[in-house]
Amino acid sequence: MATAADVLAGRAPWGVDCGDALAWAKTLPPDSVHCIATSPPYWGLRDYGVPGQYGLEPTVGEYVENLVALFCELRRVLHPSGVLWLNLGDTYATGAGLPCPPGATASGKHVGAIDSGAVPRPQPNRMPQAMLKPKDRILVPARVALALQADGWWLRDEVVWHKPAPMTLSVKDR
Question: What is the pTM of this model?
Answer without folding.
Answer: 0.73
